[in-house]
Amino acid sequence: MNNILTHLGNVGIIPVIAIDDADDAVALGGALLAGNLPCAEITFRTAAAAQAIEKMSAAHPDICVGAGTVLTVAQAETAKAAGAQFVVTPGFDEAVVDWCLANDMPITPGVMTPTEINMALNKGLSLMKFFPAEAAGGIQALKAIGGPYAGVTFIPTGGINANNLTDYLNLPMVHACGGSFMVKKNLIATKRFDEIEKLAAAAAEIVRSARAE
Ligand code: 3PG
User: Fold this and answer.
1) Residues forming a β-bridge with 178
2) Residue ID of nearest Cα to ligand 1 atom 6
3) Which of 15, 127, 144, 165 has the fewest CB atoms within 10 Å around its CB?
4) Mean pLDDT, the chain, integer
5) 8 — phi, psi (to 5°)?
6) 178 ligand 1 Cβ < 6 A
């Protein structure tokens, strides 16, 4: 597996970020690093995404910064130009997947159904985002999918929090999880980076103890 995707697996929980002011990206990155979460998925849900990717990457080379909610090839191109090291999509978009594969950009496409898993497998991708994890059946759905799809691993995202993270991480087909619970938009907007650091550290500790079991 690609080094970047391996790194995301090692961190175990990927902070999913929607940031309104790119100037907050540096302090946010500092809080994630201090909380032992050296990765970030900055989503194209806000206009500040590309600039935030650029700023966080420049200030914190130790953080693996990627782009999330990538819906178009144009956004993937913008993300790469800003320094994104990986791309996450909410659904399976063939054009975005093909562009990433042609441009050596690691991608975890979003899937929710066996049909979409087949589509990713047909592109040679065996690591996928499972989205929206809780709404799509959560742990039970992943267990059911795991039967026919041995060898496929997932990054469940959507509804993951400090209470259910351990249960997801304990599933053999879970590579890592994604979640916004430690980087809530209001915490960033009100610059509560101390609180973000605490939540990040608590999440990192959940990963550590789940994997020590
Ligand atoms: C995403 O963009 O992947 C999800 O919205 C994150 O889901 P969460 O906010 O429930 O963690």
Assistant:
1) 14, 157
2) 158
3) 144
4) 97
5) -60, -40
6) yes
Task: Encode pLDDT of 135-149 as tens digits.
Answer: 999 999 999 998 999
For ligand 1, atom 9, which residue shows the shortest CA distance? 180
Q: Which residues share a beta bridge with 43?
A: 68
- Residue 129: strand, helix, or coil: strand
Distance 144 CA to ligand 1 centre (A): 22
Edge to edge, the sheet with strand 127-130 lists 110-111, 127-130, 153-156
Mutate to test the pocket of ligand 1, among 16, 71, 111, 185 (most ligand atoms within 8 A of CB): 16
> In CATH terms, is domain 3-212 a member of 3.20.20.70?
yes
Domain boundaries, the chain: 3-212
Q: What digits encode the pLDDT tens for the residues 55-65? A: 999 999 999 99
- C-alpha angle with apex 92: 119 to 139, nearest 5 degrees? 85
Decide if 69 contacts 45 (C-beta within 8 A).
yes
